[in-house]
Target: Phytanoyl-CoA dioxygenase family protein
Amino acid sequence: MNRISVTDELLRRYQQDGYFVIPNLFDTEEMDLLRTIARAVHQNDQKTASRRDGLGGAIKLAVENELGDNISSAFVRCQSIVDTMEKILGDEVYHYHHKMILKEPRTGGAWEWHQDYGYWYNNACLSPELASCMIAVDRATKENGCLQVLKGSHLVGRIDHLKVGDQTGADMERVKVAMERLELVHCELEPGSAIFFHCNLLHCSAQNKSEFPRWALICCYNTRRNNPYQESRHPRYSYLEKWPDARIKEIGLRDRAKL
Model:
């Protein structure tokens, strides 16, 4: 059963603003399980990548193109997220990839202003028919570098992206104009709250200057009709089996017992 009621008002907000927030989509037990397992898996994971920002900091992330029998895959497959994605994108969706963002206390770097489609356009996705769901693993605040968005910026279309440090960021000439005309929103979230956002929404996050971590799980989806026209770093279409939300706790309790 989908925990989200995808009303006409919610669809209007997505179409007009480029995003919407669902507070407390996942409960305390689900988030405690994800947090405990993610810390154990990723804290010293050799596959975790680091991306320098343009301000002397660095952010860590772990990207996965494949799904498995684990808790992060249970979130990606869960009915509440997948059904909602299909409603807002108007088509069957599949798993494009997912990633854990590891913004550590005092040292976590910034994400430059960018659009996800600024990257995915070059991965042979013909249309901006992709969206992401970011789930707050830890509490996200201005102090620890929460997500910032420009409300309605998905309507400006794709902006050229350039290298900034190890990252690729949107052309700041256009970003600055967008910032003059559009509302900047800091998306402060409690653990378990989620933000669904369009792939052309301009967003960024500041460095983590606090003593608290700011980890987040981002589940990214593409539509079946937008299947990439050639191979790239992320998968082409394959059928996504939906799982009941209850599988999150089932798998989480099983895997926590193995730690």
Summary: Residues 137 and 166 are 25 Å apart (CA to CA). The chain has a mean pLDDT of 94.
